[in-house]
Amino acid sequence: MIGVSRAAAWAVGAGILVAAVPASAPAQQRPSEVYDFRIVPAGTATQIVIETTGTVRYRDEFQPLPPRLTIELLGSSAILPLREYADIYRGGVRYAVVSAPAPDRVRFDFALSGVSSYAVYQEGNTLVVTFENPGQPYPAYVAVPSGGPAAPSPGAVVTRRVAVEAGGAEEVPSQRQVEPGLPGIEGEPITLSFQNADMTTVIRAFGELTGRSIVAGSGVENILVTADIREQPWDEALVTLMHANGLEVRLENGIIRVDSVQNLRQTEMLVDLRTEVIQLNFIAALDVLPVVDPLKSERGSVTADAKTNSHLVTD
Fold first, then answer.
1. Residue 74, CB half-sphere, CA atoms under 13 Å: how many?
2. Cα(237)–Cα(209) distance, rounded to whole angstroms?
3. Which of these, 151, 125, 156, lies nearest to 56 by C-alpha position?
């Protein structure tokens, strides 16, 4: 079905909306400082939240027997005390050891219990590890409580900008390529790691990181994922990861659905089709047809009317 959001996505997919952003000189990146970590409940999951003053590069390694997760933050220094934090014992985390094997590296070793899969992602100036809580509900744990080392003031936020020079040659819409992500969405780059994580954990991590509503269907059950995503647009990463595991992704009225192709087709067959006329301005309906046609569902259709310069869309 086509609603207001679908029509807006159509306009963006057709290349009608173009914005130019002036370029700016890149700000100098400051070394990140690690000042705290927390163990917090998140529904049925446990989250290890590592607090820093900026985005970081990291590597993660999991040892199954006994279960131990190592997180190394590269290009970072530690403000929180370097020691063993032996008083955790909650949410699947027994204890943690924080060390600095080099002046520009901070290492976390988490001894776990009943944990065999996890996901890692960055959210602002925090690094988040999430996994299913194998134990009972628990209160949050804070490594550096009030009165400990204060968090330093974060450095300037660096905003990614794309410069579009005025007066350049106009791009021909018919030569545009269909983006591999979700129609009408330009996802911000993300970094995520999954180690033998069940698909529901993966989908929840994408939802938490992007703030989007993502609904998982029954077709995602019994699928385990091991993947390492580095600085990729989140919508492209989501679609690629789902396709690699035999799943399909749909964007419907702002809600992202993930399920098997068979389940999605059965659901779509129950939805009545609607027909709308979308009037185009400043661009030829025939020229843009190859761009917008792939956006329709399998039951949908798009035809171009050159006389009225419009698209007749059924979906």
1. 4
2. 13
3. 125
Q: Do the beta carbons of residue 311 and residue 287 sit within 8 Å?
A: no
Please give the structure tokens belonging to residue 72.
Answer: 């190394």
Alpha-carbon distance of 195 to 129, in angstroms, equals: 11
Is residue 112 within 8 A of residue 118, CB to CB? The reply is no
- What is the rounded average pLDDT for all residues in the chain? 77
Q: For 285-308, what is each residue's pLDDT tens digit?
A: 888 888 888 877 767 788 888 878
Q: Running DSSP on this structure, what letter comes out for residue 150?
A: P
- What is the reported pTM? 0.54
Length of the chain: 315
DSSP state of 90: B
The ranges assigned to domains in the chain are 32-142, 180-269, 275-314
Strands 255-260 and 214-216, sheet pairing: parallel
Look up residue 73 and give its two tokens.
């933050």
Q: Are 52 and 34 in contact (CB under 8 A)?
A: yes
- Maximum pairwise Cα distance, the chain: 75
CATH code at 180-269: 3.55.50.30
The gap from C-alpha 218 to its chain's centroid, in whole angstroms, comes to 21
CATH number of 32-142: 2.60.40.3500
